[in-house]
Amino acid sequence: MKPASKNILITGVSTGIGYGAAKQFIQSGYTVFGSVRSQADANRLKAELGESFIPLVFDVTDAGTVTKAAGWLAEHLAGSGLGGLINNAGIAIGGPLQDQPMDVFRKHFEVNVMGLVQVTQAFLPLLGARENHAVRPGRIQNISSVNGQVAIPFMSAYVGSKHAVEGLSHSLRRELALFGIDVVIVGPGAVKTPIWGKGTDISRYQNTPYYPAMQWFLKQVESAEARGLSVDYLGRRLVAIHEATRPRVRYALVPNKLVGWTLPRLLPARAIDWVLGRVSGLKPAKS
Predict the structure, then answer these.
(1) Residue 9 in 3-state DSSP?
(2) Is 1 contained in some domain?
(3) Is 158 one of the catalytic residues?
(4) Residue of 30, 158, 205, 210 marked catalytic
(5) Is 268 contained in some domain?
């Protein structure tokens, strides 16, 4: 069997983590196939990233465009396959569960979970889930979040979807051992990209009891994004994880890891409830 392919597929490369990963993989000598949802983004990124970037125009929630892209890529690669798949595409829209519209809640699962599964199923043969694969089996990195294990108020839809990504990733890894394809979970913390700020409109909750706490939430999000990890740093880490001989099952890429990751997982859940309730105003002090 030939050495592993230097072809990588990354979903959601228009901005953020996907964009940073595309840049870093290209700088490391890979050919990156990156999913975008518009031809305008495809043209922009092609001009910026050069010959080693090949855009694939599809929406992860659209089975037809995903299947078409997988068929085109199979012909383009002429049997050689993919060395890696990074399932990065995702959305994040904050809001209290009691009042968040069901279509918004459902969209998180359509993009963050169903879209991830749809892409994985379509491209698994190119990663080596087939007979007579030409190169060593590829590796899947599923981009979760610190919130895949640590729940924060006003993030129920996002947290639920990332919990689902973590669970299915563990099952998938055990299934794909049959083909030698590894599945790694990557859980970033705060990132210098406005995923929450641009997606959350708190004005729709102005007439609810949650509005003061939602104002606190948005300030925390903006502060976290300002001091978060850069997309270039995360891109370099994703390259290193892809190339690791014996990767871990899960990576927590979190700034201020003690406060943002370790303590929330060690402290009792009721203690976290109390702290978050007091600082957010969701648990007023007793009179």
Answers:
(1) strand
(2) no
(3) yes
(4) 158
(5) no
